[in-house]
Amino acid sequence: MPERGGGESVYDGLPDGVVVADANGTVVDLNDAALRILGPGDWQGRPLRDVLPLIDPQGRDWWACTNPYDGLVTRVRQPERWLTLAREGQPDQTVLVTAAYRRDGQRKVTSVIVSLRDTKARSRSEKSGTELISVVAHELRSPLTGVKGFTATLLNKWERFTDEQRLHMLKTINADADRLTRLISELLDVSRIESGRLELHKQLVDLATLVERDIAGRVAAGEAADRFVIETADVPEVWADPDKVGQVVGNIVENALRHGSGAVHVRLAAEGDGARVTVTDEGEGISAEALPRVFTKFWRDARRGGTGLGLFIAKGIVEAHGGVIEAGSAETGGARIGFALPLGAPGHAEA
Ligand SMILES: Nc1ncnc2c1ncn2[C@@H]1O[C@H](COP(=O)(O)OP(=O)(O)O)[C@@H](O)[C@H]1O
Ligand SMILES: [Mg+2]
């Protein structure tokens, strides 16, 4: 019998993990599938919130959001959601969670039953399907609303607007269409990374040139030149896909501009037989709780309207090159994102 801090459970043998808490939020039962997810431990008798520290894709404490014991008295279940089980000292686990509440005659919660399904138990395609549909539908709708709204307005009331107003609407439509294109290409990248179909067309790449090109493009597009500080060193060329690595640099610099503030430092250095690029900014940085999650798909700071795919894609591309990427804090207090690429070898690789 596996260790769980109690006896057998009537839920043993079910494919999904089941964790039951009493009226006080203390775990009173859990089955063998839950133990497979949590690992052995003295789970029984401990607070449910501590046994299952669940956070949603926006990084919010799921228990604080759902509040089973003091929330709406009519609520008896929580819809199925993908959440992160973020336990101290353990790697994050993605689990599909639902919960049911039993209530007495006074509608007071008498027990909470949480069902957990880990990613292994469900096919990967199903998982990305669930997430994709909800996130993509949401992300596509807002730019499309703008496109549709302004197009309809221009078609119906063309004569009523000045040239300047028409130009403004067309610019908005254009920007929204760009956003849609960007989102769709990010989603295609995600699907290539997840299915192992990311193709690399390698050639000898000078990272300093890639960085300089990215920044020159931003300055040409109107960003103040004095926001950027490039520190180059004698860095060896590496075998890499220049478009894909350029995309990584672009993502990280874009993040430093959008999520950070102040000057953006891009430092190049030799590392091993390859090279390292480190980008730091002078903004608020990434909180300690968020640091382990920034590379997770769809994980983002909800306030700033990104898709949360940029760093997931960056990680996929860097790792496909045999490199590493990590996030931390800069001495300035801002964020530090760095990646290192090995010298690598020529050739066409599929990672
Ligand atoms: N330079 C930075 N400063 C502060 N937070 C950052 C920085 N870079 C990334 N982050 C955090 O990491 C999250 C994920 O980044 P990313 O995957 O690029 O998604 P997006 O930019 O679409 O939000 C961001 O939403 C933000 O909260
Ligand atoms: Mg980003």
Strand content: 15-25%
CATH class of the largest domain equals: Alpha Beta
Whole-number average pLDDT?
A: 88
Basic shape: globular
Strand order of the largest sheet: 2-1-6-5-4-3
Helix coverage percent: 25-40%
Tally of distinct domains: 3
Order of helices and strands: EEHHEHEEEHHEEHEEHEEHEEE
CATH evolutionary superfamily of the largest domain: Histidine kinase-like ATPase, C-terminal domain
If you had to describe this structure to a student in words, what would you say it looks like?
- By secondary structure, the protein is of the alpha+beta class.
- It folds into 3 domains: 17-121, Beta-Lactamase; 124-195, Helix Hairpins (Orthogonal Bundle), CATH 1.10.287.130; 199-350, 2-Layer Sandwich (Heat Shock Protein 90).
- 36% of the residues lie in helices and 24% in strands.
- It has 8 helices and 15 strands.
- The chain has helices spanning 32-38, 48-51, 62-66, 124-157, 163-195, 207-220, 242-258, 310-320; strands spanning 17-21, 27-30, 54-55, 77-85, 93-103, 109-118, 199-201, 203-205, 228-231, 238-240, 264-271, 274-280, 324-329, 335-341, 348-350.
- The chain has a 6-stranded antiparallel β-sheet with strand order 2-1-6-5-4-3.
- The two termini are 41 Å apart.
- The mean pLDDT is 88.
- Residues 251, 255-256, 259-260, 281, 283, 285-286, 294, 299-301, 304, 306-312, 335 line the site of adenosine-5'-diphosphate (ADP).
